[in-house]
Design a protein that fits this description.
- By secondary structure, the chain is of the alpha+beta class.
- About 25% of the residues lie in helices and about 45% in strands.
- The protein is built from three helices and six strands.
- It has a six-stranded mixed beta sheet.
- The protein is globular, with a radius of gyration of 16 Å.
- It starts with a helix and ends in an 18-residue tail after the last strand.
Length: about 120
């Protein structure tokens, strides 16, 4: 298991517990958080911790999968806020602390017509 994988597991556990001090300890001081879909970027540990602390609602998360190699980790999480459910895919870089995070929050949609003979809905 890579050091970064352990750090990412701690990142999610401390976020879920809302232990913001321990959460901050998983991050490099100059961490960069990027949301390509909204074209937003947050630079710095303090701002990123505050961003998460202020996220509205009684949210919960569950790790679906983590894939790791030295220096980079990908996580797939299930996130709920009230009755709303979302899946997020996060790309992390770093070593013992996270230096960058890129988050994707794909929206579910109905498949295009004409391929139902090849697929199975779940």
């Amino acid at each position: 298991m890579t050091d970064l994988r352990k750090t990412v597991e701690r990142f999610w556990a401390t976020a879920a517990a809302r232990d913001w001090s321990a959460f901050a300890d998983t991050l490099a001081e100059d961490v960069v958080y990027t949301l390509p879909q909204t074209r937003e970027r947050i630079t710095g540990r303090q701002r990123y911790v505050e961003f998460n602390r202020e996220y509205p609602g009684d949210w919960r998360l569950r790790i679906e999968r983590i894939v790791a190699e030295p220096g980079q980790v990908v996580s797939w999480i299930h996130f709920t806020v009230g009755l709303e459910e979302m899946y997020g895919i996060s790309f992390f870089t770093g070593t013992d602390r996270i230096t960058s995070i890129t988050d994707f929050w794909p929206e579910p949609y109905e498949p295009p017509a004409g391929r139902d003979h090849l697929t199975e809905r779940y």
